[in-house]
Amino acid sequence: MPNLFLELQGQNASRQFSPAPLSDQDALHVLELADITASSLIPWGSNYSFAVALEHETGTHLGIYKPRAGEAPLHDFLHGTLYRREIAAYRLSRLLDWNIVPPTVERDGPHGVGSLQLYVQPGSDLEDPESFWGDTSLENERFVLFDHISNNADRKLSHCLVDVSGHRWGIDHGLTFNEAPKLRTVMWQFSGEPVRPELQEQLAALLEARPDAEFANLLTRSEREAFWRRVERMVEFECYPQLNPYRNIPYGWW
Question: What is the average pLDDT value for the chain, to the nearest integer?
């Protein structure tokens, strides 16, 4: 996967710097209020995405802006809704306190309304990414469970990042929360296995609280109902379903 990190340069071109890490709340504040002062098209992917510079009183930061107008029509997802699914994925990650999805908001940018996500600076390349993302750690199981309940149709290795501090992040969640079963993933290590008890407890707590209002302006009523049914099934059966090699593999492993 190409390295998305763009070094921010001041007026002195020889001086390069990286923004300091932000807390979740500070990141949301920057994403919502910062001026978008520069924009550069990211030249890969089927939808238009832009790396943008965010000028804020806390400094200059980087974001990934995905405008609604740049979404390619799909036969199985409502047109013009992918950016909302990016935001819904972040809100689900935040509700579970799993810190999988970088802070993401709705924002009116240079090409109209879309999603704006804080850019994650990748750390050093992994020596063996397939083994790293294929292990049975708690961090990876969070990803797997998150993808099952959000119905992620596109979990590739290129959508999994490790930042400079070693934290694991998931990006590109535009193909989530479909009503119909759409799960496609490269992370198969928990197929047919029981859900870790602490994660099961967190799912049960989410189901009991049922904060549907968090998704009300992002997903249709039927999409929200399908989401809660998926959570209910995971809580009831306490294990991951067996995956089908003909249906549950994304297009392109990377």
Answer: 91
